[in-house]
Amino acid sequence: MAGKVRTELSEQERRFVEEYLIDLDVVRAALAAGYTKSIALSKAFMWLCPTSKGFKPLVYAAVQEGIKARSERTHVTQDMVVRELALLGFSNMRDFTAFGPDGVTLKDMGDMADEATRCIAEVSQSTTENGGSIKFKLHDKQAALVTLARHLGMLTDKTEHSGAVTVIVKKPE
Which of 41, 63, 137, 173 has the fewest beta carbons closer than 10 A? Predict the structure, then answer.
């Protein structure tokens, strides 16, 4: 098979792609596809990184095709996800409540913009003989902002590697 270029995924690679598209967890997908734990932990992430030595173009292409097909099937795009995260991250309590010295009141839902209502995580009311309470909660702004910041490249996860590294310096000829 030396010199022959593959044009199809192996059964194990196909299973990896199917599993990866579930939650984009490369290690879990590799394990589910039957790869060893050491391969899943050390090499699987390289399969999808075009600049890595272990890059697998067929696997990468299949993943990209799967993501595109899912987007077309569900009619969900990356732009839609980013817009929704921005709604959550930049939501403003003034869109939902009025408060001051006389207390807190919730705005009528019919007076709220559709975009504002999508930010609401929970509304509940309890009534007791002594009064009652209203609980009002928005989705997690900080989580939305962190996700947006990562998407924009403002935050990067630090990866540490340990072990010996051999550097070979060649003199120019």
Answer: 173
CATH fold for domain 11-76: Arc Repressor Mutant, subunit A (1.10.10)
Q: By the 8 A CB rule, do 12 and 34 touch?
A: yes
CA gap 73, 164 in Å, rounded? 46
Rounded to whole angstroms, the Cα distance separating 85 from 66 reads 23
Going residue by residue through the chain, which has 173 residues, state the pLDDT in tens, using 9 for 90 and above.
556 777 899 999 999 999 999 988 999 999 999 999 998 888 888 888 888 888 999 999 999 999 999 988 988 888 999 999 999 999 999 999 988 998 888 999 999 999 999 999 999 999 999 888 889 999 999 999 999 998 888 887 666 666 676 777 777 77
Report which residue type is found at 15: R
Which DSSP string corresponds to 33-44? TT--HHHHHHTH
Give the Cα separation of 11 and 21 in Å (integer).
Answer: 16
DSSP 160: -
Domain ranges of the chain: 11-76, 81-147
Whether the model clears a pTM of 0.85, i.e. scores above it, the answer is no
- Pair 79, 71: CB distance under 8 Å: no
